Amino acid sequence: MGRKPEPKNKPRFIYNSYGDWMATCIGDNIFDLRGEWVAFLEGDDVWTVGGEWIGRLSKDGRILRKRYAPRKPLREDIPPRPPKPDLPPRAPLPPMFSELGYDTVDVLDEDPDIFGRVSDLKPDMD
Predict the structure, then answer these.
(1) Dihedral sign of CA atoms 52, 55, 58, 61 in order
(2) Domain-located, residue 71
């Protein structure tokens, strides 16, 4: 017997390597702890609402990227802002995380404010 696929709107919790709850993924959208839309998924790729690629969502709930991964160009085709969800008041305990090799970076460990800043790839305003 195979496993049932999880419902698309079931919350997936995103943690950093210390086990801190950092965000919640509902469908293809990622929300911070206040319920603000901060990123979206395309497959496993995580893109900020500013169009910057920051990494891939791993099966254990971390956003990871290779330390020397080439940066993808900014996206202009940002999906429309989803409605603010009803987030759970707290997250379950994080899973046991596997060790990361030197070539892999936990994005939320290295830059916990990544969702709150404007990409340096955006052109300056005149």
Answers:
(1) negative
(2) yes
